[in-house]
Amino acid sequence: MTVDSTAPTAAVAMTLAALAATGATPRPSGESVTAQKPRIAAGIKQQLSDPALATKGTWQLVWLALSPDNANMAYIAKDTSGSNAFAVVVRGTVANAIDTLEDLDVGTVVPFTVGGSSPVSISKGSMTAFTQVAGMTDGSPGAGSNLVRALTLLLTDAPPRATVNVIGHSLGGCIATVLALYLQAQNWGSLAPQFGVITFAAPTAGLKDFADRFNSVQWNVNQGYVNNYDIVPRAWADLDAAKKWYPATHGPVAPADVKDVLIPAIEALTGPNVYVQPNNAMPPLNPNYDTFDPAVVKSSTEDFLAQVAYQHANSTYLGLLQAPQLPTGPVVQAVSPNVGTAGTQITITGRGFGSDSVVDFGPVPCVSKVVSDTQIIATAPEGVGVVDVSVTGSLGTSPAVPTGQFAYGGPQPVLVTGITPDNGKSGTTVTITGVGFAAKPTVYFGKNLATSTLVSPTQITATAPSSGTPFSKTVDIRVLVNGYLSPAVPVDEFTYPS
């Protein structure tokens, strides 16, 4: 582990890494890389200019490239405060934590050769991602500039002995270790930059020979930050530890299907390969599980995976490093009415809306007008079925939420918004609140049918059936009305006695 006083602080580096996720999801109605890249760049520039963030408004975006399949992105930022420092920031595939592990393609290893040295072994997934990042160009006139060409031009214009720190979170951090070796091995001649590596939540890229090669380099800075309760950087040597997560006092304790099925299945992805983390570990963050999402602490697969996602998130790492949070992208909280036909005028409420916000009904764009940062008026386009209403701007696309659905022709979508009580034995009377309830509702506790009575369009009472023999004693209460089955959400979870 190497630390240099001129390197960006962990809070600054994590902020730069988190910015790489800006606008990562293409607009739902379709967006080419040519259209998406300037939207991503606009969002990153907007945030880099914000003096309230850890980057203090002193960093400037100077190069950005996006792979043709949108799987990977990288950008270069320059510190304008006089430090003569550059940051090469890498973004991997944007997905949930479990998908990230599956994306790495670790069952096969391939040779990686840099600087004429003997090859070392890295995963096929890491090699694929590295190849994309090293080869993609910024789309400037002519052939465009790839990463090495762009960095060469920037260093040529900079004072001698500039520092270049390669930074990434999650799969971006994994790629950063490979990319840093590649960049360090280039012939920079008289430019002679000093290279460093700062990663967050990074799974390892290769086997012991790769880790040994990485450890043999005298990096200007070499830091790897890990949330102690993040499953991703434990790949692929210590996934078994996750079976004991999380403390029973404020869970979620892993249910049997997580311990006996999910984690072993992920561990098996490596086949015979033995992966080794580089030697750059900083003291673990969150060692006592003081930071967790209190909304998902029940012993269910749903809550366990939600907690895994929370522990891995950019925002959690920023909080653990005491860095200011990034401004949120658009969020849709509700649409009204949520039933209608093409031409119906609806009001979208939420937050993070801006003058550049556009609206999609599922995969179809629509005419809309931004009223304020919390309200948009939109006209439903032609469509069928039930669609998610989303808002896209320079900071990204709003996530799909059950309360943001629009049903063409009706009936109204069904959603459970709460249950009382949320635990008990068979025979317990449970009051279910929600929207879209109608005559003759069908209520399920997990897979088991319950007897129920409609009280009003927003309330049902049900009698808890036998728990049966589920893997988890926590089940979702779901309501089926007019063909609509309410989605499983944390507030509908009911727990039977152990």
- Poorly predicted runs: none
| The CATH class of the largest domain | Alpha Beta
Number of strands: 26
What characterizes the major β-sheet?
8 strands, antiparallel
Shape: globular
Query: What's the mean pLDDT score?
Result: 92
Task: Provide a concise account of the structure shown.
The protein is α+β, with helices and mostly antiparallel strands and 498 residues long.
Structural write-up:
The protein has 498 residues and is an alpha+beta fold. It folds into three domains: 10-320, Rossmann fold; 331-408, Immunoglobulins (Immunoglobulin-like, Sandwich); 415-495, Sandwich (Immunoglobulin-like). Helices cover 22% and strands 28% of the residues. It has ten helices and 26 strands. It has helices at residues 10-19, 33-48, 97-103, 124-135, 147-156, 171-184, 208-215, 256-267, 301-312, 314-320, and strands spanning 59-66, 73-79, 85-91, 109-112, 120-123, 163-169, 194-200, 222-225, 331-336, 339-340, 345-351, 358-361, 364-365, 368-372, 375-379, 386-393, 396-397, 405-408, 415-420, 429-435, 442-445, 448-456, 459-463, 474-481, 484-485, 493-495. Strands 19, 20, 21, 22, 23, 24, 25 and 26 form an eight-stranded antiparallel β-sheet that branches. The protein has a six-stranded mixed β-sheet with strand order 1-2-3-6-7-8, sandwiched between helices. Strands 10, 12, 13, 16, 17 and 18 form a six-stranded mixed β-sheet that branches. Helix 4 packs across helix 6. The longest helix is centred in the N-terminal third of the chain and has 16 residues, at 33-48. The radius of gyration is 25 Å and the shape is globular. The protein starts with 9 loop residues before the first helix and ends with a strand. The mean pLDDT is 92.
